[in-house]
Structure formats: C-alpha cells, structure tokens
Design brief:
Blueprint (H helix, E strand, L loop, with lengths): L1 H17 L4 H13 L3 H4 L29 H8 L2 H18 L5 H37 L2
Length: 143
C-alpha cells in the first residue's frame, strides 16, 4: 500500500511539473523557457534543426527573396467569358447564402415588431420637435 501510494504521488508530481494547471504557472514556465532556464535548458535539450528562430540565420527560410506567387482565382476570372463570369458570380452568391443563419418565424416577427415600434417612436419624436420649433418660430416672429 505504501509503495503504491508513493508511486501515485510521484506520478502526480511528474505530471504537474510537466504540465502546469494554473495560468500563473503557465506564464512562469513560458518566462523561464524564454530566459533559457526552463526544464529543456536544464536537461541540455536544444531546438530541433530547421525550426524557425533557430540557427545562425534566425527566421530566414529558403525562398524569402522571391515574390509570393499569384493565386489562380483572379487570373482565371479575367479569362472567362461574360457568361462564365456571371455563372461564377451566381455560384459564389449561392455559396454565401448557404452560410447565412436564417432567423426563425418567431425571431422574424419579433425583429419586425421592434423595427416598427422604433420607426413609430422616431416619427413621433420628429413630429413633436417639428411642432415645438414651429410654435417657437411663430412666437418669435409672430403671425
């Protein structure tokens, strides 16, 4: 029983040491790794070759001196006929419409009612302000 209990405690300590479970512990581990004092640095491990940020030319990768190749989407659209471009446009519109989350009937009725109430309120407010300004102008300049 005592050996099993000790093994379980060792496993828990190893798992908690390798993977912190609090945000503060994770930040501390990241800071230690950046400073080079983390568990990898203590064990003598280094970053694998070919990874970005390692080696003498940190961050340089092959092909950085070349411009990025153009994608085929715009070039092929220019080569299409008028009918082909219209068909492509309609396909893209149809694809975007499939992504839309359409409201239910209940939601649509609710949204419509809210809009109508808001519009009625704004009409009443503009009418009231118009009436107040008209009376003010009549008072100042007289009839």
């Amino acid at each position: 029983m005592s050996e099993d209990g000790e093994k379980d405690t060792e496993k828990e300590q190893k798992s908690s040491a390798s993977r912190p479970n609090t945000a503060a512990a994770r930040r501390e581990r990241r800071a230690a790794a950046r400073a080079g004092t983390g568990s990898d640095a203590k064990a003598g491990k280094t970053a694998p070759k070919g990874k970005a940020g390692s080696g003498p030319d940190k961050g340089k990768t092959a092909g950085k001196d070349r411009p990025t190749p153009k994608r085929g989407g715009t070039a092929t659209a220019e080569k299409r006929s008028l009918f082909g471009r219209i068909v492509l446009f309609l396909r893209e519109v149809w694809g975007e419409l499939r992504k839309v989350i359409w409201p239910t009937r209940k939601q649509m009725v609710t949204y419509t009612a809210v809009v109508l109430v808001f519009v009625a309120f704004m009409i009443a407010l503009v009418y009231l302000l118009d009436f107040v300004f008209l009376e003010g102008v009549d008072f100042v300049f007289g009839d």
